[in-house]
Amino acid sequence: MSVTVRDTTGAAPPLISVFSLSISASADLRNFPSTSYPAVISSPLLGGDFGPSPITIVSIVAADATDLNNVYSVDDVMTITFSQAHPTP
Ligand SMILES: [Ca+2]
């Protein structure tokens, strides 16, 4: 069985190495013709990946607005621009 995601509206993404599935007896999953008790199953953790990220780094710009020296120092700012919006950790 495979499940293809058609609409992710309102859903949180399943996390690789965290997400798993369970089937409870109330689902009444059995062989056919039915000779077994309902299956009670827990899957291993989700493996694989959802494809490579399309996000790239467009630029990295250093700035020193406070002491205006030409060395890496306190309060220097590096601005990293990505190719698209992304969730922040
Ligand atoms: Ca500096």
What helical percentage do the residues reach?
under 10%
Number of helices: 0
Can you summarize the main beta sheet? 2 strands, antiparallel
Cα-to-Cα separation, first versus last residue: 33 Å
* Beta-strand residue percentage: 15-25%
- Note the run of SSEs as H and E: EEEE
- Average pLDDT value? 88
Radius of gyration: 25 Å
- List low-pLDDT spans: none
List all distinct small molecules, including ions and cofactors, that are bound in this structure.
calcium ion
Q: How many E-type strands?
A: 4
State the secondary-structure class.
mainly beta
Describe what this molecule looks like in 3D:
The protein is mostly beta strands and 89 residues long. 0% of the residues lie in helices and 19% in strands. It is built from no helices and four strands. The two termini are 33 Å apart. The protein binds calcium ion.
Task: List the defining traits of the structure above.
two-stranded antiparallel sheet; mainly beta; rod-shaped; two-stranded antiparallel ribbon; single chain; 89 residues; binds calcium ion
Please provide a brief summary of the model.
The protein is built from no helices and four strands. It is mainly β and 89 residues long. A two-stranded antiparallel ribbon has the order 1-2. A two-stranded antiparallel sheet has the order 3-4.
Architecture blueprint of SSEs:
Elements: E1 22-23, E2 41-42, E3 57-63, E4 77-82
Antiparallel strand pairs: 1-2, 3-4
The structure holds calcium ion.
Residues 64, 67, 69, 71, 73, 76 line the site of calcium ion.
